[in-house]
Write a structure and sequence with these properties.
There is one protein chain. By secondary structure, this protein is of the alpha+beta class. It has a single domain, classed as Alpha-Beta Complex (Cathepsin B, Chain A). Strands 5-11-6-8-9-10-7 form a seven-stranded mixed beta sheet. Strands 1-2 form a two-stranded antiparallel sheet. A two-stranded antiparallel sheet has the order 3-4. Strand 1 and strand 2 form a beta hairpin. The protein is globular.
């Protein structure tokens, strides 16, 4: 926007192994980008938020899927750590031994590094919980429809939206995507970062950011047709207002599960 890039970096939710954490990736990306917009990039580096901490504490789900609404609820009540707090490892905590603790939100470690044959408990023996900055949202809500999405993007910045991923969409390599379907049921969460217009084809489109790595699509991004044949991207979006302080009154909003 006006020569400035407010985006946190792109992610790959399936590295180092498959993890169905799209619900945590699209939401933390959108919230982080809004902090960068609010701060006008005054921080030393662009803000990025920890999807692994969200997975660790089951703030909406796990690597087996989840609800984006849980991320916004967690951000509202607890605040999300930045991405330097928890390395993304693409797997759940060992539920048979323990649940989320302070060390699973933000940690530091010392030598020696964890070996591949060590248990999680053995690895944590050389680590300790650390204090961290809490990134809250002061309000969160659902958005539906192209006009409301445009207004939200223009005023506040990126939003997270559900889409119905198909085999054809997984093979997307560039251009303005469209696919006609009789029924779209959200099974994947992405971040919508903007919109545009293609004069040659007279087509309005959304600009989306996925969490499948920069090798996918247009360096991790995609464009998809607006208004129709767009995998339901306009049906189920969520947004939150970034804040460094916690508020007390709880919004009442329903969110789907992915």
């Amino acid at each position: 926007m006006n020569g400035k890039n407010y985006l946190s970096w792109n992610k790959n939710q399936h590295i180092p192994e498959y993890c169905g954490s799209c619900w945590a990736q699209g939401t933390t990306s959108a919230i982080a980008d809004r902090f960068n917009i609010m701060n006008d990039l005054k921080t030393a580096t662009p803000i990025a938020l920890s999807a692994q901490a969200i997975v660790n504490c089951k703030a909406g789900g796990s690597c087996n899927g989840g609800s984006p609404g849980g991320v916004y609820k967690y951000a509202y009540e607890n605040g999300i750590p930045d991405s330097s707090c928890e390395q993304y490892v693409a797997h759940n905590l060992d539920d048979g031994h323990r649940t989320c603790q302070d060390i699973d939100l933000c940690r530091d470690c010392t030598w020696p590094p964890c070996g591949k044959d060590q248990t999680e408990e053995e690895c944590l023996a050389n680590c300790w919980a650390t204090e961290y900055k809490h990134y809250y949202v002061s309000d969160y809500y659902t958005i539906r429809g192209a006009d409301k999405m445009k207004a939200e993007l223009y005023k506040y910045g990126p939003i997270s939206c559900g889409v119905h991923v198909t085999d054809k969409f997984e093979e997307y390599a560039g251009g303005i995507y469209s696919e006609s379907r009789l029924l779209n049921i959200s099974n994947h969460e992405i971040s919508v970062i903007g919109y545009g217009y293609d004069e040659e084809t007279d087509t309005e489109y959304w600009i989306g950011r996925n969490s499948w790595g920069t090798y996918w699509g247009e360096y991790g991004f995609f464009r998809i047709q607006m208004h129709k044949d767009n995998l339901g991207i306009e049906n189920d979006c969520t947004a939150g207002i970034p804040s460094y302080t916690k508020v007390s009154e709880e919004p009442t909003t329903y969110f789907p599960q992915f």
